[in-house]
Each structure stands twice: as C-alpha cells, then as structure tokens.
Q: What sequence folds into this?
C-alpha cells in the first residue's frame, strides 16, 4: 500500500517519539494518513520512558541511534530493528555486557528515511555486519520492505527472526518466549562471517552447512541451529517460500540458490500420524520439537501442507 508518499508508517518506541509524531502530524501544512504501531506492553515497560526535556524540546526522529556506544570504531555488527523488540535486545545486551553491537531503531518505516539512516550508519564504518531483527515471522513484519532498501544503500542485511508462518502467533506463551530468547541471542552473540567473495550477501554459514541442514542434520558447530525456529539469512529479495531462498551474486545478473539460509527441513515425525497432515506421515520438525497440526494441539503451528 505504501507508494508515492501516500501514507506515513511509524513505530515510535518512546513516549517522546509518540508525542512528537502526533505533533508533527498536526503542525504540518499537508495531510497524509498516519499509521502508528502502538504495542500495549510499552505502556508499562520500565525502559520505555522519556525525560521531560525530550517532550518540551526536540522533534520526531525517523531513526534513533545507539546512545550507549562510546566508541563506534569498536562496533562489529549494526542491528537494525523497529518497535518494542529493541528493549528485549537492550536488556540482554546489558546483561551480557556486549560492547561491539550497536542497536539502531528505525522509527519511521515509510516514507523510508534514507538520509537519516545513511547518517547513522556512516558512524559504524568498521562494522562487518548489518542485520535486521524483528519479532514477526519472515513473511510478516518489515523485512521484505527493508531488505531491498538497505541493500540499495550499500548495507546488505542479514535477517534474524522467526521463520515464515501462516499464523501470526504460536498460541503458546511458553513457545513464544523461547523463540523470543532465541532471536535475541542470535542478534547479539552469534558472530557471522561474510560468505565467499563471489556472492553479494552476508551470511553465517557455508554451503556445506546449508546442504547438511537441507538434509535435516544439525549444522556442524552451530549448536543444533537447524532445529530452531529462528531464521538467519542474507537473501535477495527475501524468502517468499519456506525452504527456498535466493541471492544475487555480484556481476552474474541471475538468481542462484542461497546456501546460508537456516530453514527447517522436512523429516519424519514419529509423534504424528498421517491423518494430521497431508504429507503422508511427514511434518515440519522445528523449534526443537515436533509440531502437530493446529487441530491436534494449540501449542504449535502446523507446517504440513
């Protein structure tokens, strides 16, 4: 729906930002619909606060830089995010005392803030990685919108978040919290390395690891990442089909298979019979457990069919 500057889509993460985006909407000499993401959990979050000075002065910031980074030259990874997932990342980073990961908040998704984002990213010239982190599944959230635009700015991002799903939620708080912990840990502690010089993506695994995971085997040295619901990929233009991805090698002018995508593979599920799915006794094994169909258990999303 976003095209030709027809609407504004913002995801303010502080009270001051929320105040200033509403004030900007009223004070502007033109009118465009304003779409705001306002999660209720931020109303009571202990870190989602603003001093009075930020309310009485300043303006709405399309991009919020990391104010806790003392030396930008030490940053090895820039993590871009939007909304309340920032506070999960911030709390965990403080607990781990991580000093080489910068957390940058994109407060306005559309119109895309090209200049503010370039200005912030230019501070981290020695960073080896740029990642986009979101709570939503791969086929939801802002990943498909942000990936091509960040790549156009010269910062091809990795994706860190949940894998694609037909449902926006797991239906289980316990499973949700476990997945949330996985993606936060992946964003802060799992150090990736650039793929081979012949391709144009930044990934975390080699072709050998990708082939092992395609066979349903755990990745060597990856701590069993093939069983997790967290997907880490640097693909273009985004994974639209579970189990498939593509990358754009430099100078090739064609799409090729991406070896870095960590997606769960199909393998027999001993706990699931044929009536529960349409794959003759086979089902997605993901998130460290067998996922029965939604009709049999509310604690998982069906991957069959």
A:
């Amino acid at each position: 729906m976003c095209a030709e500057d027809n609407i504004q889509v913002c995801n303010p993460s502080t009270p001051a930002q929320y105040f200033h985006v509403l004030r900007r909407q009223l004070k502007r000499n033109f009118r465009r619909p304003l779409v705001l993401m306002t999660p209720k959990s931020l109303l009571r979050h202990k870190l989602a606060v603003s001093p009075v000075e930020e309310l009485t002065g300043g303006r709405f910031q399309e991009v919020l830089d990391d104010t806790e980074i003392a030396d930008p030259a030490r940053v090895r990874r820039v993590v871009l995010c939007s909304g309340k997932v920032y506070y999960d990342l911030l709390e965990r980073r403080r607990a781990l005392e991580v000093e080489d990961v910068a957390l940058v908040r994109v407060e306005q998704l559309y119109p895309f803030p090209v200049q503010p984002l370039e200005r912030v990213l230019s501070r981290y010239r020695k960073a080896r990685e740029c990642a986009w982190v979101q709570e939503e599944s791969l086929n939801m959230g802002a990943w498909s919108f942000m990936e091509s635009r960040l790549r156009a700015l010269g910062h091809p991002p990795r994706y860190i978040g949940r894998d694609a799903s037909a449902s926006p939620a797991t239906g289980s708080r316990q499973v949700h919290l476990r997945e949330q912990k996985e993606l936060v840990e992946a964003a802060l502690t799992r150090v990736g390395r650039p793929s081979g010089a012949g391709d144009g993506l930044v990934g975390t695994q080699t072709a050998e690891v990708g082939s092992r995971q395609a066979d349903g085997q755990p990745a060597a040295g990856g701590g069993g990442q093939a069983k997790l619901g967290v997907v880490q990929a640097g693909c273009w233009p985004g994974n639209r089909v579970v189990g498939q991805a593509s990358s754009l090698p430099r100078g090739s002018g064609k799409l090729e298979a991406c070896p870095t995508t960590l997606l769960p593979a199909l393998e027999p599920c001993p706990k699931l019979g044929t009536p529960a799915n349409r794959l003759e006794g086979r089902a997605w094994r993901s998130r460290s457990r067998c996922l029965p169909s939604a009709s049999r258990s509310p604690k998982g999303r069906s991957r069959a069919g």
